[in-house]
Amino acid sequence: SYISDALQAVNRVNRYSIDFINDLYIVIANDHKILGNLRPLHKHVPCKQYIEMATARFALVFALFVVGVQQIYGHGKMTDPMNRSSVWRLNRFAKVLVNNEDNQNFCGGYVVQHNENGGNCGPCGDNYVDPVPRNNENGGIYGKGHIVKRYHAGQRVKVVVNLSANHLGFFQFSICELKNNKDVETEECFDKNPLKIVAKSGELVDRHPIFAGQSGDIELELELPKSLKCKRCVLRWHYSAGNNWGFCNLKTFEGRMGCGPQETFRSCADLRRLHAINSDKKMAGIKFVLAAALLVVGFQEIHGHGKLMDPVNRSSAWRKGYKTPPNYTDNENFCGGLGVQNQNGGKCGPCGDNYRDSQPRKNENGGVYGTGTIVKTYQKGQRTSIVVNLSANHMGYFQFAVCPLKGANDIETEECFDKYPVKLANGSDKFPVKSGVNGDFSIDVVLPADLTCEHCTFRWHYRTGNTWGMCENGTGRLGCGPQETFRSCSDITIHSSRHTAEEQRETMAIVELLLASAVLVAGLQEIYGHGMVMDPVNRSSAWKKGFKTPVNYDDSEIYCGGISVQHEQNGGKCGVCGDNYALNRPRPNENGGKYGTGTIVKTYKSGQKFTATVYIDANHLGYFRFSVCPLSSPDELETEECFDKHPLKLADGSDQFRLKAGVTGDVNIDLVLPEGLTCEHCVFRWHWKVANNWGQCGGGREGMGCGPQEHWRTCSDITI
């Protein structure tokens, strides 16, 4: 009831324009039992009648106490340019250390910053007492110098900050120039180069206020210094929250929200800045910026890949059972890479090869993969569904075209494809790729109404939109300038009428043969989707949560050794915790193995309902199942029989969780532990059977998800 009264009193402060807080000071100043010898004000101003003295005393003490121990509910981070702790979220950076708590760079927390460190904070948001370089500083575990943006002097640039909860206060931005790769940021360095924020009025200001209710992505425009030149710069976002109540003036005892110590959030991002551009040399500068960007981009790894899967492209036909040469990098038909393509004047082979390769190039008719194998037959003018697989989304758009070949030695040309563009069913000529969508894209297209051919080449063309470049108007943004290009070519036939009965029988025979072959080669498919349990954190990932366990940078690849190892070499068997079945026990992820150190990461109660979190970075459908296995000794090994005895139900009573198409990131599942089961050491297991491979379902049927599939498993050590 006291808390309720105190909160009501605070509500009254908000409702009426009165000096309520001053009244509270006066009440308590006259009650020495509460604050001892605090000197009362010269003139006692009586409390308003609606405030009871007990409530008033408690309201202030309660508020002061809560301020010091409150949890951090609001989090934030700079996402454009991407901050160091979040760089792993950008597909173009491989093997970057993951920080799942990248929105918690808050100086160690309010209490640590102000009660233990005297208000000091690491320049990039780390705990001030951590050894230098701290985690988010240059040279720290996240400060690896990954350049995420390039600007020119004096440029106005867009920045994006993501707030998951609003804590009022204000943003500030600044830049620190690093002299060399070992240089570490300092407050003095950031203080030298504060950045101006472009207000809505056009005025340049030092701070951007955060008003109540603002959350999500907050876009701002900054003006970079015209005089600063640096090869490497660090852009810092500083957020001083304003949701804590404190003293504004200790002499007058004035207090309100936003005064006194506040929570602080910071993010640092690595930039590359060029020399200042004056008006006389603007065009030369633009050309230089573009040339530099092209040079750097050329060395970027391609982490987003794609390919045409229906009609299956030449490099991937072997995956569908055709007797064509296997190409294990069939999702990398990207013109040799952006750097190579730029060296070739922007040119690309008609079917995605390096333009400077000799003809016929590998993916062209007559090349290594262009064997002329017809994979599909259509009718002229037919509306049909095309399937493209993207393992990572790079925005941009798809286009389709066909080129009729006149003979076995005829080679595709750009002019040929330009003659026969394929429209989408809605009449447009481009399919825009929306951000964040991966996996299979099914797109309805309409073939040309007047084209027939015994041998046509069907082409998918993907111009991405994830690279920063210069636009025609002289500004820079994502999607402008040269972009990565992917292409796939498939061999098809287009008839003028339906197949005869004989042709249909032949087609069915071929389909049956292909299905049988597909099951055999399914094991050769690449692994595009990854996953792992992050709560309770699994053994291979426990180090990411601060546990002193062995580091496994491949903790998202605990998939039974891969589909070919599991199904072709091990007869479908998998280690109980996701390792290659053929390995000696204890396998790396089993109790007693390299990562199975017995470190308890969570404690639950028998029969408890709780939420498990699974992280998925690419969705391959299928389902999750969960189970536990109690261990009676430190040397005991998990077994399938043990896990089978203790399956976990979902909160809705079902025994499996269906993964819906398109869902990625953290997947939260409510589970219920078995009633009556207790253990000092239990192993919690997540099992994921995916459903993205084509196979036989039985009864003469076939489809995606049938036949052998990839499996993922992780094990976590818990107490019940």
Automatic annotation (TrEMBL):
Cofactor names: Cu(2+)
Secretion signal span: none
Domain Chitin-binding type-4, chain residue ranges per copy: 75-271, 305-492, 530-718
The organism's place on the tree of life at top rank: Eukaryota
Any one GO MF annotation of this record: metal ion binding
Keywords assigned: Copper, Disulfide bond, Glycoprotein, Metal-binding
Alphabetical list of InterPro entries matching this protein: Cellulose/chitin-bd_N, Starch-active_LPMO
Family: Belongs to the polysaccharide monooxygenase AA13 family.
Entries under PANTHER family matching the protein: BINDING PROTEIN, PUTATIVE (AFU_ORTHOLOGUE AFUA_1G14430)-RELATED (PTHR36575), CHITIN-BINDING TYPE-4 DOMAIN-CONTAINING PROTEIN-RELATED (PTHR36575:SF2)
Protein name: Chitin-binding type-4 domain-containing protein
Species the sequence originates in: Trichomalopsis sarcophagae
